[in-house]
Amino acid sequence: MATIKDVAKIAGVSYNTVSFVVNGVDKVAPATKERVLKAIEKLNYKPNKTARALVGGKADSIAFISTRFTSVFGMNILREIEDGVHLAGLSSNYDLIPFSTRGEAGFKEQIIESIIHNRKADAIIMLGIKPGQENMAKLKKEGIPVVIIDGTLAGAHSVKCDNEKGAYLAAEYLVKAGRKNIAYLGMTKTAGETWPSIIEREQGYKKALAEKGIAVNDRLMATVNNNYINEGRAIMQTLLKGNKEIDAVFCGAGDNTAIGAINAIKQAGLRVPQDIAVVGYDDIPVASAFTPSLTTVRQPVEKMGNEAFIIALEAMQGRLKNPTNLVFEPELIVRESA
Questions:
Q1: What's the whole-model pTM score?
Q2: Do residues 219 and 292 share a domain?
Q3: Residues sharing a CB contact under 8 Å with residue 295, sequence separation 6 or more, in sequence order
Q4: Is 189 domain-assigned?
Q5: In this predicted model, what pLDDT tens digit does every residue of 292-318 receive, in sequence order?
Q6: How far is CA 153 from CA 52, 132, 145, 158, in A?
Q7: Distance between CA atoms of 198 and 299, rounded to whole angstroms?
Q8: What distance in Å separates the CA atoms of residue 246 and residue 182, rounded to the nearest whole number?
Q9: Same domain assignment for residues 173 and 273
């Protein structure tokens, strides 16, 4: 693979001159510039983007940071942002760089610091997490805009769905259907990286029950560490052993947890929805194909990912002077499970 040294040698110029040409710095005589461009073409030289960023201040990249990429919601968001890059016609010269924090707050800050110091990205999109106060100040100083999906932060752009309302709609629907002992399966709250939606969905569930005169029963509330089918099955099996009165379950953790819960209910010899109604969250593709088809709360994932990319693009191009904060409406999708 050709290097900047190879280009400089063939063109008969210094490394700095090649760097000026590559980064569009208007300090090179036309004849010299032509020699450098011919050398680049001859060698099929591809400039190192990190080096270009350090010299010219542009990385030609957008960073996407999430706790993990295993969730269906996270993968769909990433896909929409990736599609946005492609549809914007930037796929040939612009990169989308994904980073996973693995749920560690310290590692998240290390990633952000690396982006800042090495200018690895011109904008950062974060899913369910946000920079610490110190790094947010550094990002602002360096002119690197931040877009947060599923959360908010002063000084940052944000795109989210009204999760409290979505959970409220689900719990309210179950109450109106005559269910009185509604279990709740949420995500475990952690000290470091708790998504705001985890808290908001639990609040929506409790609010709906309170307004309908139903006391929240802590024995009917449980959490999973991840939105996995096997975790949903296991936690539902545990709930059923000690709580025979359960007649409904709202899975704020997500649709995979709901599918696991339905499996556990069936294995216990109970029927869905006749004995226990089940409502999920997210409306993942398999929700409508599963048997029974899953009643769930739909988030406009396509719009959220798309808008996050558009905001990041406009912000890094200097077209957004003030933070943009978008909140999308959830929709209850009624199917066979409830």
A1: 0.78
A2: yes
A3: 173, 277, 278, 279, 280, 332, 333, 334, 335, 336, 337, 338
A4: yes
A5: 999 999 999 888 988 998 899 888 878
A6: 30, 10, 12, 8
A7: 14
A8: 6
A9: yes
Is the distance from CB of 186 to CB of 239 less than 8 angstroms? Answer: no
Whether residues 83 and 168 share a domain: the answer is no
* pLDDT tens track for 93-115: 567 888 888 777 788 889 999 88
Judge if 113 and 231 occupy the same domain: no
- Mean of the pLDDT values across residues 25-38? 83
Q: Which of 111, 200, 187, 115 is nearest to 152 (CA)?
A: 200
Distance between CA atoms of residues 113 and 271, nearest Å: 52
HEC string of 23-67 equals CCCCCCCHHHHHHHHHHHHHHCCCCCHHHHHHHHCCCCEEEEEEC
Tell me the H-state helices in 57-195: 72-87, 105-118, 133-142, 163-176
Using CA atoms, how far apart are residues 161 and 327, in angstroms rounded to an integer? 5
Residue 333 to residue 320: CA distance in whole angstroms: 35
Q: Is 259 found in the same domain as 177?
A: yes
8 A C-beta contact, residue 150 and residue 142: no
Q: Residue 42's domain spans which residues?
A: 4-47
Q: What is the distance of C-alpha 101 from the center of its chain?
A: 12
Question: How do 61-66 and 182-187 pair as beta strands?
Answer: unpaired
Q: How far apart are the first and last CA of the chain?
A: 59
Overall number of domains in the chain: 3
Q: At CA 160, angle to CA 159 and CA 166, rounded to 5?
A: 165
- What are the φ and ψ backbone dihedral angles of 170, each rounded to 5 degrees? -65, -50
Whether the per-residue pLDDT at 325 is higher than 70: the answer is yes
Does 123 share its domain with 87? yes
